[in-house]
Design goal:
This protein is α+β, with helices and mostly antiparallel strands and 337 residues long. The protein is built from 10 helices and 14 strands. Bound molecules: adenosine-5'-triphosphate, zinc ion and magnesium ion.
Length: 337
């Protein structure tokens, strides 16, 4: 029997946009992609990034990934020193956990939800017809009980519900994160890895974690040859109420970013942030300190991809030619001659 497969392949005029029903061809991975920044272009041409046809969404080469793994190991060593419990979370989060984080209240524009097909044969037929006619086929899907993970630390708070042990808990957690902020900027991705050292405990221990973590993170990144500066910052809270929240966050210095200039991008970029959540997650997730008070939390978050991009821009696109001290920190240096 011969199976006839009808293929409708339309290539987008602009390889970086894409629209429903259109298969965006990554084409020649080494060719410049219209609209991308020159730094992204350089990384694509060098084969460090793999194009997908969507802005801010890239695959990574082995060379890129080895550097990312090296940075992850550095964070892990620090976590080990603190006695952190390692947790590797999936890139999706339980919808119920997501709702408890209040992310939807503050950043509805950044989140992503997962939808699935739950119909039978008739609905399947309808779905395929919609696809074939370039119609709104996602409208026929149902929300799943998971959403895309927006921050690596979100998954650890439900593990703490109840009363914490004396001294609280500390986690080393990493996850692939999604944020809907398509950009031509090499350092602003839609899908990126966040690696965090999170503490849940008393008001005092959480604040200390934030402070010590910031200092430790800055030192670690300076050790990789990045020029670091600590800057009080605010999150991009949504809407008019958001402006008030951002002003309060800034005034109380709850968020401090570790920023660095990335050649090829404008200004300075946050490659890490040290955040005090005060009792926000403690309240939402019903967490109490050993002393019976509502728990406080703090996280020190490393944007692994931004760190890799910063190093590639500063030290050059070939990690094999990076200074020995940088390669050694990342575990990339062979035995010294
Ligand atoms: P920015 O102000 O640059 O948007 P942010 O305040 O949203 O950063 P956090 O929520 O503190 O970032 O996330 C922790 C870290 O994750 C950031 O310091 C950064 O290194 C990284 N990160 C955040 N958003 C992105 C992104 N879109 N692409 C790549 N890395 C990111
Ligand atoms: Zn966090
Ligand atoms: Mg942001």
């Amino acid at each position: 029997m011969t199976v006839m497969v009808q293929t409708h392949v339309h290539y987008a005029e602009e390889a970086t946009t894409g629209y429903p029903g259109t298969l965006v061809a990554p084409s020649d991975p080494r060719a410049p992609v219209a609209g991308h920044s020159s730094l992204v272009d350089k990384m694509l041409k060098a084969g460090l990034l793999v194009p997908t046809g969507v802005l801010g969404l890239y695959g990574r080469s082995g060379v890129y990934q080895d550097v990312a793994d090296g940075v992850g190991l550095m964070v892990r060593r620090w976590g080990q020193d603190l006695g952190a419990q390692r947790v590797h979370l999936p890139p999706v989060l339980a919808r119920s956990t997501f709702l408890h984080t209040n992310y939807l209240e503050s950043f509805p524009d950044l989140m992503g939800s997962v939808h699935v097909f739950t119909g039978g044969d008739a609905e399947h037929k309808q779905l395929l017809q919609r696809v074939a006619s370039d119609g709104d086929w996602p409208a026929l899907l149902e929300p799943a009980d998971v959403v895309l993970c927006s921050a690596a630390c979100h998954g650890v708070y439900p593990l703490c519900t109840g009363t914490l042990p004396e001294g609280g808990r500390i986690f080393d957690v990493q996850s692939s994160c999604f944020r809907h902020e398509p950009s031509v900027n090499a350092a602003r991705l839609q899908s990126f890895v966040m690696h965090e050292i999170v503490h849940v405990g008393s008001a005092e221990s959480a604040w200390n974690h934030r402070e010590e973590g910031l200092a430790c993170g800055l030192r670690m990144l300076e050790g990789l040859g990045l020029s670091m500066r600590a800057v009080p910052a605010s999150d991009p809270f949504f809407g008019r109420v958001g402006n008030v929240l951002a002003a309060g966050q800034l005034e109380e210095q709850l968020k401090i970013e570790g920023v660095t200039p990335i050649p090829g991008t404008e200004g300075e970029t946050a490659v890490m942030s040290a955040n005090s959540h005060r009792d926000h997650f403690g309240k939402s997730f019903g967490i109490h300190s050993a002393a019976g008070e509502v728990a406080h939390s703090a996280c020190v978050a490393f944007g692994i991809d931004r760190i890799v991009v910063a190093m590639l821009a500063v030290h050059g696109l070939d990690p094999a030619s990076w200074p020995f001290y940088v390669r050694a920190q990342l575990g990339l240096a062979g035995p010294q001659a």
